[in-house]
Amino acid sequence: MARIVISEFMDERAVAQLRAAHDVLYDPRLVDDPQRLLAEAATADALVVRNRTQVRGDLLAALVRCQAIGRLGVGLDNIDVAACQSRGLQVIPAIGANALSVAEYVVASAMLLLRGAYQSTAAVAAGNWPRNALSNGREAAGKTLGLIGFGSIGQLTSRLALGMGMAVVAFDAMMDADHPVYAENGVRCVGLDELVTMSDVISLHVPLVDATRGLFSAARIAAMKPGAVLINTARGGIVDELALAAALKTGQLGGAAIDVFAVEPLAAAAHFEDCPNLLLTPHIAGVTTEANERVSFLIADKLMQVLQ
User: Fold this and answer.
1) Does 22 participate in catalysis according to the annotation?
2) Running DSSP on this structure, what letter comes out for residue 270?
3) Average pLDDT, the chain
4) Would you call 283 a catalytic residue per the annotation?
5) What is the total count of domains within the chain?
6) 98 and 72 Cβ atoms separated by less than 8 Å
7) Of these residues, 139, 264, 273, 290, which one is catalytic?
8) Mean per-residue pLDDT, 16-25
9) Is 13 noted as a catalytic residue in this protein?
10) Is there a single domain that holds both residue 79 and residue 158?
11) Residue 29: which domain range?
12) 191 lies in the same domain as 131
């Protein structure tokens, strides 16, 4: 029987599946108690985390008998993957399990921000009637969605967007322009600069690495099509938050949906105050009831295989 430590929230039924065969410590608050987490890590044969637990430095050193790290999600920037591999630690992300949740978030955000009419509840309930002000919204059909990163999430997002009548272009630095996945999904591959200038909506689907850190700088945001919408469900640090806020306030951008931030949780951010047509969410684009079930059971199944 192996010992599994789970430091962040996981579907209870998947936890029960692991508990039926192994000794499981499940405490979603463990991530907020670093000293206790270090102590529990010393006896763990497997560790299960989401994005807040930093598997590096002291925590990685404490995992003296660990065989595997289960990641309840796909991003690995909170895990020192190279160091894990050098120690023979298997890192297991939940590839594809939350793709639909992220894709739906992107498409829903694009529709909401293009239309710009869904923040009038308080005004209408108070007896106001801002009909003229809200009659200039835009339809998603016929608009161009630009996807930066065309892995499983980008591909699924493209299929949903195409189903709504959008045109889709994509850029992926890890794929050749003639990669068959573009044609298979009805998407045109373009260069990064071309995508930025031609897209009505841009959605980011890349990891946070040296090449993508600050990718959407003030200069790149300024190069976007006037009135365009920017959606980031990837990682904080890719978008310059101050430059984004300034572009929204001047009207250069037509809207933004930001689910990830350079520092999480986001501290009180004065630069985002009074930004029009801005949607901020707390890193939940890939977290729905259904996605949590898929992610949790996928990781539980893979850990059962590793620890058998």
Assistant:
1) no
2) G
3) 97
4) yes
5) 2
6) no
7) 264
8) 98
9) no
10) no
11) 3-97+289-307
12) yes
